[in-house]
Amino acid sequence: MLTGDRPTGPLHIGHYVGSLRRRVELQNAGTFDRIFIFEADAQALTDNVDNPDKVRQNVIEVALDYLSVGLDPDKSTLFIQSQIPELCELSFYFMNMVTVSRLQRNPTVKTEIQMRGFSGESIPVGFFTYPISQAADITLFKATTVPVGEDQEPMLEQCREIVRRFNNIYGPTLVEPDILLPDNAACLRLPGTDGKAKMSKSLGNCIYLKDSADEVEKKVKSMFTDPDHLRINDPGKVEGNTVFTYLDAFCRPEHFPRYLPDYPNLDELKAHYRRGGLGDMKVKKFLAAVLQETLEPIRIRRAELEKDIPAVIEILRRGTEVAREAGAQTMSEVRRAMRIDYFEDQTFTAEQAAKFQQ
Ligand code: ATP
Ligand code: MG
Q: What spacing in Å lies between the alpha carbon of 200 and ligand 2's midpoint?
């Protein structure tokens, strides 16, 4: 299993429900032989070229988030993308297998180009081609399973195409990965607190895992609900109402007796909101309590980890070493398949010498 995140900011609750929670479950279930989790700092630089310090600072923030949600360096290899030169090498060869028009069709890249305000052909080549380097990230470690949010679906499809093309031309070498999406619809693409796009570090509409209890409460209070639900007695809409979407993502049956005993379950709460007579504040208070229950233990572990940053850096260094070994192994198979293993292949020297002596 492999997956990663861009160190462009601390991680948020969208990451948690979209991918982090699943990773920790899979890690602890022991389903996979090997688990690779990486910080995509080189990818982050594709659209933060003039902000290297932002990426550098967030490498530590994201590592703290990883460890505080329960990723365990004894069970999962945590590493930093830019420190694996084999990734550049593999991406370079993958570039030959993808056309410009295929990249232009990628819907996630299209949205992200708009979001970042790149216009026409002013988009940096590195950013435009990041789906290719992402295919290298996945295949260098022969990942079979990639747990990610819905925005990553086009990237995985692109990666599978590259693998098929590569294996067709050079013989079976690389592994076609499967995407593993969250099974709860609300978690596929958690919206931001503004109710608009997906929650994203780049949009400033996030509840961060590291936010204090007060910050979480404040953010929940000012969240987007149903704009037509003006008076308590008005009937309200639950669909597209971000507060209810977050409840779909986080709320479990046992939360009701603990924090909202007037209601037996989420369906009943929604039904009351739809009928009218249930105020936004009451639902928001409940949501804040549910979020606190999930975030509090994460926050406590983070505070502990923050006391020993050198140990955190050492975890990344050791993980990166392990990842490099695995990557070097695949890369030597790739070079052999691509017929560019001149110095490793003893028969090459003999063959060529014989050829020129005839
Ligand atoms: P950036 O704005 O820098 O792109 P981001 O917030 O989109 O940051 P990424 O690092 O791009 O975060 O995404 C890391 C992982 O988290 C991916 O698997 C992605 O699908 C998932 N993810 C990110 N945001 C959400 C979200 N709002 N809901 C569900 N999953 C998400
Ligand atoms: Mg993103």
A: 7
